[in-house]
């Protein structure tokens, strides 16, 4: 019985040590053939996409402003509503991209 308790304690300690070691090891850094870090390149690409999306939001915002100024205050065109939905969609895409890291 004593031997069984020691064996169980040994196995439990071994499993616990394995779990702790797995948690402490940092993620392996993946390098591209060019030698650059894959994570850095992904971040740069996502930054460029966010800049492009922000430019698109500015363009849509200016077009929306022009449409709203052109129309009467009682009339809202369907195109204006679609532009606001597109602005919202692009803004959510930027927001989700920024929250990843």
Query: Low-confidence spans: pLDDT under 50, at least 5 residues?
Result: none
Q: Judging from the principal axes of the Cα atoms, what is the shape?
A: elongated
Distance between the termini: 52 Å
Overall SS class: mainly alpha
Tally of contiguous helical segments: 3
Strand content: under 5%
Query: Cα-atom Rg, whole angstroms?
Result: 27 Å
Overall mean confidence score, pLDDT: 80
- Strand/helix succession: HHH
Overview of this protein structure:
With 101 residues, the protein is mainly alpha-helical. 77% of the residues lie in helices and 0% in strands. It has 3 helices and no strands. The chain is elongated. The mean pLDDT is 80.
Please give the structural blueprint.
Blueprint (H helix, E strand, L loop, with lengths): L1 H23 L13 H33 L7 H22 L2
Helix pairs in contact: 2-3
What characteristics describe this protein?
about 100 residues; single chain; 3 helices; mainly alpha
Would you summarize the structure shown here?
With 101 residues, the chain is mainly α. The chain has helices at 2-24, 38-70, 78-99.
């Amino acid at each position: 019985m004593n031997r069984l308790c020691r064996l169980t304690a040994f196995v439990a300690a071994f499993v616990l040590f394995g779990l702790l070691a797995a948690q402490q090891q940092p993620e392996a850094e993946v390098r591209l053939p060019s030698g650059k870090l894959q994570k850095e390149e992904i971040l740069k690409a996502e930054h460029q996409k966010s800049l492009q999306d922000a430019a698109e939001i500015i363009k849509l915002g200016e077009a929306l402003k022009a449409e709203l100024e052109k129309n009467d205050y009682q009339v809202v065109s369907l195109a204006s509503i679609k532009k606001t939905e597109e602005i919202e969609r692009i803004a959510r895409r930027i927001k989700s991209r920024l929250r990843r890291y």
